[in-house]
Amino acid sequence: MKNQSEILLESGTNELEIIQFKINQHVFGINVLKVKEIILPSPATPIPHSHPHLLGIIQLRGEVLPVVSLERALGMEREAEHDSSQDKFIVTEFNSKQVVFHVHNVDRILRISWDKIEKPSNLYALDSSNVIGVIKEKDDMILMLDFEKIMVDINPEAGIHPSKLKKVENRERSKKRLIVAEDSPLLRQLLADTLVAAGYEHVEFFENGRDALNHLETMVEQGKDILKEVQLVITDIEMPQMDGHHLTRRMKENPHLSGLPVIIFSSLITEDLFHRGQALGAVDQVSKPDIDHLVSKIDQYIL
């Protein structure tokens, strides 16, 4: 029998489950789909001259995994009264890699709708560039972290960069128009730089699926021929307000938008999620940060 997370994502209902955890008294959340397991901390072997956010490496079921201190990554000082007996390791998998994050406590699992996640304010005490969304839950403010950015800060080579593009064939791309839904400001800029380097000069970016869908629906209301105005949509999965799966579903349900190809570009392209994206109507899916593969897929569907 399928669990609730599978059912929610397969149907594209714009809902997700998050694991709530703490660093000092700050409350954070991580998408359950990124989490493989939660374990008790074990001593990490330090790596000489490694990044200061990296505690070291551990061996888990035959795999050697890096351990990252979220406390350090977020620029927070450990409180003197902190009870380390509640500390946990969150073992994650995204961008086709496994990483362990050291946190101070794991509280519970919550199911929420993406439209309950608000865009963070620049006035938050923590570095807002590491926060992709805020959830108001009773007396708590749960901050959704940009784990991809945290890892790129530690290892820039793990991210998207125009230099990763192989020599591409000289083909006419400049007149093709793309729409990209991506919530991370860092990734929006990197994607913009990379797509321009590949020859795609007309790219319009939106912070979430809802804004992208509203833009497309407005074009329909204005009587524009969508398939002439836009050639392809690229979307992340995890986004506040509306996720990429729900965006894809809504587009395929709209007769004016259903013919527009959608490519999902996400850190969460597992085998199960790939099948769900297919079922919702995505023409293809690419795992971040494989930008070279993304460009070849764009070429495949619109050139």
From TrEMBL:
Residues 177-303 form the Response regulatory domain. It holds the Pfam family Response_reg. This is Chemotaxis protein CheV. Gene3D superfamilies: 3.40.50.2300, CheA-289, Domain 4 (2.40.50.180), SH3 Domains (2.30.30.40). Coiled coil: none annotated. The modification 4-aspartylphosphate is found at D236. InterPro entries: Chemotax_regulator_CheV (IPR024181), CheW-like_dom_sf (IPR036061), CheW-lke_dom (IPR002545), CheY-like_superfamily (IPR011006), Sig_transdc_resp-reg_receiver (IPR001789). Residues 15-156 form the CheW-like domain. PANTHER family: CHEMOTAXIS PROTEIN CHEV. Keywords: Phosphoprotein.
